Amino acid sequence: MTATAETTDTTKAIGRPIRRKEDERLLHGRTNWTDNIQLPGTIHMATLRSPMAHAKITNIDISAAVASEGVLHVYIGADFPDLPGTTCVWPVTDDIVMSHMPAICTDEVRYVGDVVAIVLATDQNLAVDALQLIDIDYEPLGAVVDMEEALKPGSPLVHESAGTNLCYTAKMPCGDYEAAKAKADVVVSRRFINQRLIPNTMEPRSVVAAPMGMSDEITIWTSTQIPHVLRVLLALLTGIPENHIRVVAPDVGGGFGAKLQINREEVLALVLAKKLGRPIKWTEARSEHFVSTHHGRDQIQDIEIAATKDGTVLGMKVDLLADMGAYLQIITPGTPLLGMFMYSGIYKMEALDFTCTGVYTTKTPTDAYRGAGRPESTYAIERIMDELAAELGMEPMELRKKNWIKHDEFPYTQIAGLTYDTGNYEAATERAMEMFGYEALRVEQEARRAAGDPVQLGIGISTFTEMCGLAPSRTLGALKYVAGGWEHCTVRALPTGKIELITGTSPHGQGHETAWSQIASDIIGVPVEDIEVVHGDTGRSPYGMDTYGSRSLAVGGQAIKLAGERLVEKARIIAAHQLEVSPDDVEFSAGTYSVKGDPEKSTTIQAVAFEAFTAHNLPDGVEPTLSGEATVDPLDFSYPHGTHLAAMEVDTETGKVTLRKYVCVDDCGVQINPMIVEGQVHGGVAQGIAQAMYEGAVYDAEGNLLTASLAEYLLPSAADLPSFDTDRTVTPSTTHPLGTKGIGEAGAIASTPAIINGVIDAIRHLGVNNIDMPASPMTVWRAIQAAKSGGN
Amino acid sequence: MIPASFDYVKATSVDGAVAALVKGGEDAKVLGGGQSLLPVLRLRLNAPSVLIDVSEVGEMRSVTDDGDSILIGASVTTYEVMHNELVKEHAGLLSLTAGVVADPAIRHKGTFGGSVAHADPAGDLPTVAAALDCEMVIAGPNGRRTVAAKDFFVDYFTTALAADEVLVAVRVPKLGAGWSYNYQKFNRTAQAWAIVGVAAAVKSENGTITEARVALTNMGATPIRATGVEAALAGASSSEAIAAAASKAADGTSPTSDLHADGEYRKHLAQVLTRRAVQAASGI
Ligand SMILES: Cc1cc2nc3c(=O)[nH]c(=O)nc-3n(C[C@H](O)[C@H](O)[C@H](O)COP(=O)(O)OP(=O)(O)OC[C@H]3O[C@@H](n4cnc5c(N)ncnc54)[C@H](O)[C@@H]3O)c2cc1C
Fold first, then answer.
1. CATH placement of domain A373-468+637-788
2. Beta-carbon separation of A129 and B4 below 8 A
3. Where does B58-173 sit in CATH, by number?
4. FRET label pair with A520: which of A598, A694, A718, B113, CA 20 to 30 Å apart?
5. Ligand 1 atom with the shortest distance to the CA of B100
6. How far apart are CA A11 and CA A1, in angstroms?
7. Beta-strand (E) ranges in A366-445?
8. What is the pLDDT of residue A470?
């Protein structure tokens, strides 16, 4: 449900809620998922995974598998003793304990799902059949499941040679927290568990690698968010020259960070394609996905907030334990730190004392998942603000208003040193409260309490901000991230007047083809339909930093604008030559160049494109062909924000939680396509609600994943969610030339604390002040029972 | 994952299905709608050598009026149970409950007989079969026999069906006048299995319950008749009396613990849901 139908300038493409160009093809199944790719002579790969969380491999017998029907090869770790399966590009501290994840384990397994052998066969089914014939003896080494236990002396060690399960400790003291605390009237502390989540994309991971024959090139099609980054890393890991590797991300069915990764199956497929000279294909089953695709979140957050009795926040202390899992993958250690700067949220304070301890356990590695670090920080600050309000006896929204940065205080440098360029928390909140019927719901809440209604009502608030567009490159360098944060775009006018927009971003559901066309359409004056967006292929789009961290528009959008402008300027010189005037005397509007004061004398950008192609009559010094190219390193991050409100009903007899109404007003600056923004908000909000109410990986003491399928690991469907009421405010970014911010992760970041705050608000009067996620009926019922009997 | 390979026989008659089962021996399995069996095969928890598909056996596809009861063919789909006029008229509790099984796609494929034969303790329809005192019509190499619901459900995923027998139909006694009913299903997401479910049918006269049937889902290895509640409900005419009766719902049960609920919580839920089911059914 939306209130975003308003249209600005009908001559402009930007701002119009046009339908996504890519959808017709996607919805009709005219798609090219990696698993659809069928190449002659393909060899199918299947992976045997460890059933043990931590064990020594004492013996492997592959003889029966080798003899099995259709089997061509069976490989074990000893066949590739030095081949790494992944790499970590973000060693966050100087003394971090790094890890080595082999492509195939040689002598030790470290989580249920670790790869111990692979079978190559002529047919996928036969490859899977043969897996069951491989006989492996394991000698248990002791699982490491609990982070606090892992840090105790005597714990089994995930990496024996490291001598510790401590991966790193990162500190960021901002201001003097102890001094701030000394001034405080009230100090509130809570332990929040930001539970481990298992990202589930519609399309499971899949890879095909094939030698292309006519050159040394090997093309690897893979369901990835990061074709460009992956190409570099595959070259570094395998020793295959980078210029022999082409990475293609064809249609990719969702990522959410889970496909921001370099995976051992990709490494193996590439290496085997080269070794055997035939295409290699691998696609994971959903059950395989649960244990082998990286997990997200998994933090224990000890949070303390100090304030005066009038509700002025003074400072905050954040102490995190972050579960790395068994190995560091691409940005495993950095993921919790992506939230490091955001623990103060939208609030002013004197001090923020941040510490994060990364811990190895014998579980699936963790890494980025929608929001990566910011959902965790937002959860902590928005939850603790509600706890502080309760402690002070203040209305929770009033406490927020008292402490947030006012709209006339921007740009504002917050306690962690980030400068928020723009924002208007008052406007978004006012609109959200009005749509929500905030006051009426408070009245109903009171009435239900007074009547002792078995179903209690709570209001959950989340007034959030986040940082988008991982960049600028210098900042990333200072944070020890090994890559940059720039983005590239080339806009090419073809001889027939059609446009190719080549982007380095790599969409997997976001609608870039439409939104990028809208931007370019306004800049170069060509209809949206005439623009083809080329992406996700290092062969056709050679430069790029790909798609994650809500960066595509925030960074890539800037490159589109600049590339388009450069094309327009080159064309202006050619047009002026054709029109026999000086370029200064040529105006450009909606695709037409005309002589100032004599608009009859004109030519079009399409005509100029043809002239640039024939090159029969170009001005001196102007090269043939018409294109514009730009690689942009952004000035700063961008900071979307919003106010999300949830009306939660809690059945106190059963503990069942129901989301009755959800209102959100998001401010992502200028919206290129409000319909796409709407889609991103809906999906994100649903995903955040899922963390609050349904999802959560559970391991037993032996390190077995108990939630290893969609039967145990619950994901909500449309039937479980109300229709969301969304609206927006528009506060343009001043660090982005289009005024845009980012929206890909906002919903997932904002909604989780709104839900839990609402659940607790419904039953706080019963004595409950914390609920560990997910707020399952049994968890909530037990919390109520415990409060009734005096504890919590 | 992909199931291990198996042979497939499409049965066209009950006798044919039984003959194929006998021929297939221990490793043969009946295939209904496949909604429970195929996931088991895909996870490779079972690998039968042959599947005998009974989903289009004519005799097993119909619902017929048989005097005091209706006869529902085992291959009638859950969707059809939900919408069939005879079922709605004479066994409304069954059609109501069919509507809360899984999701529409699964209801269109899954069968009533498959659900009963599968005997998942979390299945909703076996509970109704127990509540309504249904009888299972079974065919085997030695002919046909009938087994009452209370004797049919033996243990977790275990019934009185022998390996070479086919469930042909379920005989559902008509409830008759004066009866009303309700099913309370407690789960976490819309399509999920019941954590606990309660089927209640009550006969009332002038605001007083005269007779009640209450059966519980997922409170033990099989559907359980809450006989203590049923006895206590006779004569109940107030919400307090219903609540008092419902508090006996978990008596004598020992439900399992899993990720969604432990045994203690299930016992608590059984009481709350029983009260709600009886109140909703009786309007008291
Ligand atoms: C995601 C999901 C959610 C579900 N949720 C629910 C739910 O909420 N509530 C619920 O009650 N059910 C639920 N189910 C189960 C669903 O209703 C199944 O379809 C049903 O339990 C089995 O029916 P079927 O026809 O598919 O049987 P099949 O899967 O074909 O067979 C199941 C078993 O019964 C045997 N069998 C089948 N027919 C016969 C016969 N005529 N004679 C002898 N043996 C036979 C088979 O050999 C097999 O062992 C769910 C299933 C799924 C996949």
1. 3.30.365.10
2. yes
3. 3.30.465.10
4. A598
5. 8
6. 26
7. 412-413, 419-420
8. 76
Q: What b-and-e string marks burial along A283-295, b requiring 16 or more CB atoms within 10 Å of the CB?
A: bbeebbbbbbbbb
Strand partners, A118: A47, A75
What are the tokens at B140?
Answer: 């085997």
Q: Does A667 touch chain B (CB under 8 A)?
A: no
Q: What's the pLDDT score for residue A63?
A: 98
Q: How many other CB atoms sit within 10 Å of the CB of residue A531?
A: 23
Structure confidence at residue A11 (pLDDT): 82
Task: Using 70 as the pLDDT threshold, list the residues of chain A that sit under it.
Answer: 1-9, 791-792
> CA B108 → CA A381, A484, A513, B240, distances in Å?
47, 52, 38, 41
| β-sheet bridge partners, residue A174 | A352
Residue spans per domain, chain B: 7-53, 58-173, 179-282
Contacts of A128 in chain B (CB under 8 A): 1-2
Smallest CA-to-CA distance from A537 within A217, A788, A279, A314 is with A217
Q: The sheet that has A592-595: what strands, in order across it?
A: A586-589, A592-595, A598-604
Residue A194 neighbours by CB under 8 Å, 6+ apart: A297, A298, A299, A300, A301, A375, A376, A379, A380, A773
pLDDT at residue A500 in the model = 98
Measured CA to CA in angstroms, residue B280 lies from A194, A631, B198, B241, B273 at distances of 39, 66, 12, 14, 10
Q: Which amino acid is at A663?
A: V
**Across the 284 residues of chain B, what is the mean pLDDT of every consecutive 10-residue run?**
91 98 94 96 92 98 97 98 98 98 97 98 98 98 98 98 97 94 96 96 96 98 98 97 98 96 98 98 95
Query: Considering only CB atoms, which chain B residues are within 8 Å of A782?
Result: 265
Answer whether A42 touches B (CB < 8 Å).
no
Q: Is the CB of residue A132 less than 8 Å away from at least one CB of chain B?
A: yes
What's chain A's Rg over C-alpha atoms? 28
Q: With contact defined as beta carbons under 8 Å apart, do A400 and A362 qualify? A: no
- Rounded distance between C-alpha atoms, residue B71 and residue B51, angstroms: 25
Residues 101-130 of chain B with CB under 8 A from chain A are: 103
Task: Find chain B residues with C-beta within 8 A of A712's C-beta.
Answer: 259
Are the Cβ atoms of A654 and B5 closer than 8 angstroms? no
User: So what's the pLDDT on residue B282?
Assistant: 96
| Distance (Å) from the alpha carbon of A128 to chain B's nearest alpha carbon | 8
Letter for the amino acid at A466? E
Q: B43 contacts in A (CB within 8 Å)?
A: 287, 709
Quickly tell me which residue has 């992976």 as its tokens: A47
Distance B136 CA to ligand 1 centre (A): 16
Closest CB from B5, B43, B192 relative to A714: B192
**Is A778–B261 a contact, with Cβ atoms under 8 angstroms apart?**
yes
Measured between CA atoms, the residue of chain B closest to residue A454 is: B272
CATH number for the domain running over B179-282: 3.30.390.50
Query: Tell me, what's the pLDDT at A6?
Result: 47
Nearest to A778 among B43, B192, B260 (CB): B260
Q: What is the CATH number of domain A23-31+486-632?
A: 3.30.365.10
Provide the pLDDT for residue A157.
Answer: 98
> Closest Cα to atom 10, ligand 1: which residue?
B123
Tell me if B54 CB under 6 Å of ligand 1.
Answer: yes
CATH topology assigned to domain A34-141+204-252+259-292: Aldehyde Oxidoreductase; domain 3 (3.90.1170)
Q: Which residues of chain B make contact with A778, given a CB cutoff of 8 A?
A: 260-262, 265
* Predicted local distance difference test score (pLDDT) of residue A302: 98
| pTM of the predicted structure, to 2 decimals | 0.96
The ipTM (two decimal places) reads 0.96
Per DSSP (E only), the strands in A425-507 are 455-465, 487-493, 499-503
Do the beta carbons of residue A605 and residue A493 sit within 8 Å?
A: yes
Pure H helices in A79-134: 124-131
Residue A4's pLDDT is what?
A: 44
